[in-house]
Amino acid sequence: MAASEKKCIICAETRDVDTGFPESVLSSACSHPQTTCLQCIEQYIAAVHKGRNAWMLVECPACTNVLPPIVVQRYADPETRERIEVLAVRQVLEAFENFVWCSSPDCGNGQLHEGGLALPIVRCTSCGDRTCFLHRVAWHTGLSCDEWEIRKRPDALDSDETARKASEETIRRTMKPCPSCKVSIEKNSGW
């Protein structure tokens, strides 16, 4: 290995010190020499953010110090850099109490809803779909928020199942198939 070359601690590839490694340590808090190559830093930053729905702090690959956002932006590939920017903006928007995302899976728009809980229906300014401000789901047409919550409780599902079984039992006891067409009928008299 030449004097101007160094081995990366992650991929074990030997690379040129001037072109294969960052010019300085990744964080001012890092006290170790720079031992991770540029390619591995880029892949590491991408791996941290892959499949995430929130902007993540990125630690130095050689220690546990958190990298400053400017360093993450500098060494991330363009696709990861764009994803990080989108996630960071989403995180800022979601910090606003009256901000709500459209519940339509095809939309992706969000907006501030000044009506708050007093006016729980949010009509998307982009696609027109309605979202429940309180529950952050598609508007539960025909149900108030309280009614929707009752229906979503696990014990409500049990009572729905109990009611269904009771109804089936009542039908079984009180109805008989029509002798000619076999449709279930309830006869008033003469069984």
UniProtKB/TrEMBL annotation:
InterPro entries: E3_UB_ligase_RBR (IPR031127), IBR_dom (IPR002867), TRIAD_supradom (IPR044066), Znf_RING (IPR001841), Znf_RING/FYVE/PHD (IPR013083). Its EC number is 2.3.2.31. It catalyses: [E2 ubiquitin-conjugating enzyme]-S-ubiquitinyl-L-cysteine + [acceptor protein]-L-lysine = [E2 ubiquitin-conjugating enzyme]-L-cysteine + [acceptor protein]-N(6)-ubiquitinyl-L-lysine. It holds the Pfam family IBR. One of its GO terms (molecular function) is zinc ion binding. One of its GO terms (biological process) is protein ubiquitination. Residues 4-191, 8-64 form the RING-type domain. Transmembrane segments: none annotated. It is an enzyme of class 2 (transferase). Signal peptide: none annotated. Keywords: Metal-binding, Repeat, Transferase, Ubl conjugation pathway, Zinc, Zinc-finger. PANTHER family: RBR FAMILY RING FINGER AND IBR DOMAIN-CONTAINING (PTHR11685). This is RBR-type E3 ubiquitin transferase. It comes from Apodospora peruviana. The lineage of its organism: Eukaryota, Fungi, Dikarya, Ascomycota, Pezizomycotina.
